[in-house]
Every structure is written in structure tokens, then in C-alpha cells.
Amino acid sequence: MTRLPRTAVAVLAGLVLVTAAACNSSSTSNGGSAAPSVNPNDPNSIISAVAESQIKSFHIKVAASGTFKSASLSGSSIAGALSGDLKLDGASLEGDVDVTNKAVHLTVSLPAVPIVAFVSVPMSGDIIVVDNAVYYKFGVTGLPGTKYTKSDLAGLAGRVGISVPAAGSSPITPQSLKSAMAKAGVTPNVVGVEQIGGQDAYRISFLLPLDLINALLGAEVGGASMKIDSMSIDVWVYKNGYRPAKAEFKEGSAAVGDIDLTATISDYDKSVTVTAPAAGDIAQ
Q: Where are the strands (E) in 162-243, listed by range?
């Protein structure tokens, strides 16, 4: 069994939950009955409308492509598990997010992971977040016997500076989102309106502070080898209902490799049940 690095699990689980909290209603007191007044030319106005929308649950699917260079993680546990560069074409992550209860169940699929010289094997993983705990496992697809590792979500996320909201906590407000982006040096910009799934959607691009990102990566990995040359994030928000429809992350780096992640979001407010693994399925 090859375990996912704890930091990677914390980042993934934390970001999914923070995104879910950002979509949670900040207008519960008025029942969400009043439609928000949105300036289509102001990205912060659109983002505020997303934060004010009432979302109970959704389904997310992320498709990946590109190559991740194992040499960029020299000396880390990840690099030690790989015998070559990781090809991401065909890789995917998919699952359900229960916004109300801050719970997540995601499955990961990697079609070709180089773990032995000249040999790549398909690998898959499972990540469950429920009751402020994260359960995860990762191993060769079809190989029996892999058990979950359990960790405290808040503790893991805190190691990398992610604050995970607890179930029932106050939702993230438009003001706090705008303040957080400004503090991080993130600048949003409305590109225009495009069609997503036959519906009009605002496209918002985010200008990211590469110097800060590279400094954080260097501190986390323990060196300057993991340097990003370019990075972009685009988010599409449906004009009808102001709910996220799609997001795309692109990263380019001579040292790390070129990576493209595209997420699509669907099945809003359908019934979602996330439960912890049985005790016998958790490694002691």
C-alpha cells in the first residue's frame, strides 16, 4: 500500500470544504428569498452572489491532464514512491460534497503510476471527510486488503494554514471572501459570458501572486526546486442562480511540469449521505 502524503490529503480535503462553505448561504435569516443584486462587470459582486446562494450539496468531477515531474520533489516521500514522471492524462477525482454537514466523499483514479522501473500500474484512492475526521486510502487498483488511514482534519489542515469550518459554523461572507483574496494578493477579473451546458455563465479569471505561491511551495517541500512559472484559475458561474458551473486550473513549470485540471459541478441539492468507514476497514 502506498499512502497519500498527509499534507496533500489535508490540502485537498480542506480546499473542498472551504469551497463548500463559501457556497453556503450567508442569507439564511431572510430565507434566501430575495435574489441578489449583481453588477455583471464586477467580479466581487458575482462572487458575493455565489457566497449568498443556498447550496445544500453538489457533485464534483475533476479531469486531469499533463505531466508531473517527480524530480521536483527530490527527497520527499512522494518522489521516493515514483520511478519516473507521473502522467496525469486520464486521471480523475469525483465525488459528492454535503455542504450542510461539511462532509465529502471523493474517489481518485490514476491510470498509470510509475512505481517500478519501466512499469506503470493503475492506482486508485478514496477520501472521506466526516465529523471533522479524514479517512483515506490509496493503492493499486483491484488489489484487496487496503485499509483507510484516519486523521484529524483540522490538525492536518492547520499544518498548511487551511482553516476548515466546522459543521454548523457561521458561513463565509462576501466581505470575508473579498478580504481573504485581497490579503492573499488574488485579483479577480470578469472575462465575459460563455455557454456551459447550454446555459449562460460568467467567466471569472483570477490573477495569482506567483512569488507568494513559490515561497509557500518552497517552504512546504523544503527547497526551491518546486518553482511555478505560470498559473491561472478560471471559474464559470451560472447567471441563473449564481452557482459555480466549472473551474479550470492551469500550471506551467520547467521544474514541476505542465498540469491542467478541469472541474465540473452538477447535481445541486440532491440527497447526499457520507458515512465513516467501518471500524474493521480502518488501519490501527
A: 187-196, 199-207, 230-238
Mean pLDDT, residues 234-239 taken together = 94
| AA identity, residue 63 | A
Helix H or strand E segment including 234:
strand 230-238
Grid coordinates standing for 128? 472521506
- Please identify which residue in the block is written with the cell numbers 454548523: 168
**Dmax over Cα atoms in the chain, in whole Å?**
60
Q: Are 153 and 10 in contact (CB under 8 A)?
A: yes
Higher pLDDT, 80 or 248: 248
Q: What percent of the chain has pLDDT over 90?
A: 35
Q: Around Cβ 31, how many Cβ atoms within 10 Å?
A: 9
pTM above 0.85, yes or no: no
Mark out the alpha helices in 3-61 (DSSP H runs).
Answer: 6-23, 43-52
The DSSP element (H or E) to which 175 belongs, if any, is helix 174-184
CA distance 133 to 164: 11
Q: What are phi and psi of 238, to 5 degrees?
A: -60, 135
Q: What is the pLDDT of residues 99-148, one digit of tens each?
A: 888 899 999 998 888 876 667 888 899 999 999 888 989 888 887 778 99
- Helix/strand/coil for 246: strand
Residue 62's nearest CA partner among 107, 124, 102, 105 is: 107
* Residue 143 neighbours by CB under 8 Å, 6+ apart: none
